[in-house]
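Researcher: For the annotation table, I need structure tokens for UDP-glucose--hexose-1-phosphate uridylyltransferase. Please keep the output clean. Sequence:
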Amino acid sequence: MYAGALMATVKKLSAGVIRTDREMADGRTIRYYDSTPAEHSAIDQRPKEAQPEIGQMRYDALLGEWVSMAAHRQARVFLPPKEMCPLCPSQGELLTEIPENNYEVVVFDNRSPSFRPPSTDWKLPVIDSLNTPDGQAAGKCEVVCFTPHHEGCFADLSPQQVRAVMEAWRDRTRELSQDPYIAHIAPFENRGEEVGVTISHPHGQIYAYSFIPPRTQKHLEIARAHHAKTGRVLMDDIVAREIHDDVRIIARNKQWIAYVPYAARYPFEIHVAPLKPVADLALISDIAADAFPEIALEVLKRLDGVFGMPMAYMASWHQAPVREGHDVLRLHWQITSVRRAPGKLKYLAGSESAFGAFIMDMNPEQSAEQLKNVQL
């Protein structure tokens, strides 16, 4: 019997979404999220393959950051043609990561993960500069398929599909937070070869780190300093300034606000934040989750409409780490695009890549105006 033939488990979530778990041929878990009734009984017919060993983490004493070594990822799938796409539903002789011949939203454990669950009790090595011992690259990596359709993008989803994706993000944040070795959860999407996409099927990923990644650590330190000085939460003050200035806001509804940040680093950068602030995706109310599709689709359609062409972008959820910072950090969705004009990209050259000092070629108010002027 294939592992995929084991009994499915079913869980009811918000907005009528049903989660159904199945086991894949190699023992990984695939989770189906459906906003309408669906049966998932297909068995993964592929032969069982050995999963890669857990990678190694090394400490960069020069920058005070962890670096993960995942050499097995060199052999991962790279820009396959549509007829060989591993994220499309299985059809005929095409046996993909999704055994069913149709689906709405699925989340499954990555076949070539940068991080893996540790096999034994695990602790992050104690940092001691150059004497810091190496550690296992503990964590989890998951793939989120937004749609069974190979063509298109997130902006082409129906509001119902976006709501199902949001429910998957909330559900995975809640569940991954229960693992004792997970310190931070980061859902994100890369779109376009310009930002390194290796499979063109509309999808995102979830990285669950066993450490707090550098950018989140910096967010945390700055937010704590602001709170200590003012008694207020930094992100709340930032949103209040955007509302007061009212020049960089590009979309808004009763639950969310979208704006180009005051000190944007990219030609087109958009932050989307709930107006009733929360620390992470698990804490979003059902009302806010229901209102998310409207603003998400508007923002992404405005981005594509600026030059009348699909925009390459990175869309990342920033939230508080699992076990700290909930008092000072706030959830927000950051979308950045490197395209500054048709046929022109903003390359992260010497100043940005070598020194981390960003230089913008136009004022954020200009890009905000371009986004607002798009006719939907």
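Researcher: And a one-line annotation?
Model: The two ends are 52 Å apart (CA to CA).
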